[in-house]
């Protein structure tokens, strides 16, 4: 039987070739696990969380302090580096200020610099030293930091994360206190 393009060629059985893998091939390298760093857009979170927004209506300093205390608990449980950034761009002749508040860092930006600008700059600087996560609901900021290789977390997702950490802390305290009561009896 012939086809238009000549006689039909039947394939003959052939043994499969055994592939040889050279020993000098490079093995897959695993990425180095970097320490975690969380950058928090302070006022963005204050005005996104109901509890803090309510405090801010009467006392912005109180809302800021409450956020810092929440972040101290969060850092104590998670063990990561936490940097909370507040805008000071409307304050005349204000230099950038970095403070250590208990176990976290607090940054007040310099005059004419927003928290978004500081976070973008810092994310770029820390990209090779840390696995950076940024907590903000600012959509433009999220796009910029993702370009620097950082992870993003919206204010609502961050609130859930903090609530879960607080729940875990409470459970740990209850578990420890029950154990102590049992031992003391």
TrEMBL record:
<protein>
    <submittedName>
        <fullName>Protein containing DUF901</fullName>
    </submittedName>
</protein>
<dbReference type="Pfam" id="PF05991">
    <property type="entry name" value="NYN_YacP"/>
</dbReference>
<dbReference type="InterPro" id="IPR010298">
    <property type="entry name" value="YacP-like"/>
</dbReference>
